């Protein structure tokens, strides 16, 4: 889906709405080699013109199949998110009217390629840790080797709590500094 910036600016009276199902599998897989499969991407949105320029609000829904970050087993990851972006011409140099938190996209050749923007945002939404349902529910399936093992955060917290006790061989030393402080 592509629009020229001038075409979008002409929608001052009535916002431009859209609802499409896109096949972005090839583009996403070319940009991220970890992606195994991509379902069709459902996209709904609106473009409006305001005092800042052209503003787009897009809601995206899709499913990706990614390798588990623990076992590399194929895992389905549903993605449902929305994003808001402001679009400006490549000839505009003063962006001071925008807040620091605004996402401002400078359009090359003043053409908005929404497919590219959607791909960018899908790639940003991929979680750092992808786990299968079994891996999420079980701490026992952690990999281990001869002199190493992977522990979950809950196991780590428990082992740290157990280590808070003083080593019996050093129990007499724990009060050493208390006595020297009392004498001074």
TrEMBL record:
Q: Where is the composition biased (Polar residues)?
A: 135-154
Its ancestry begins with:
Bacteria, Bacillati, Bacillota, Bacilli, Lactobacillales
Q: Where is this region: Disordered?
A: 135-167
Q: Which domain of life is it from?
A: Bacteria
Name of the protein in question: DUF177 domain-containing protein
């Amino acid at each position: 889906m592509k629009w020229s910036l001038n075409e979008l600016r002409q929608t001052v009276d009535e916002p431009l709405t859209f609802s499409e199902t896109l096949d972005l599998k090839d583009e996403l897989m070319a940009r991220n080699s970890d992606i195994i499969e991509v379902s069709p991407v459902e996209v709904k949105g609106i473009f409006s013109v305001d005092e800042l320029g052209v503003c787009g609000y897009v809601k995206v829904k899709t499913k990706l199949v990614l390798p588990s970050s623990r076992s590399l087993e194929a895992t389905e990851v549903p993605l449902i998110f929305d994003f808001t972006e402001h679009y400006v011409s490549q000839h505009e140099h003063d962006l001071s009217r925008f807040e620091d938190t605004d996402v401002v996209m400078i359009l090359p050749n003043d053409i908005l390629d929404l497919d590219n923007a959607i791909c960018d945002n899908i790639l940003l939404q991929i979680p750092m840790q992808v786990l299968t349902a079994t891996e999420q529910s079980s701490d026992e399936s952690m990999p281990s080797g001869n002199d190493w093992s992977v522990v979950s955060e809950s196991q780590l917290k428990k082992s740290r709590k157990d280590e808070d006790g003083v080593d019996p061989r050093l129990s007499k030393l724990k009060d050493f500094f208390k006595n020297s402080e009392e004498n001074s």
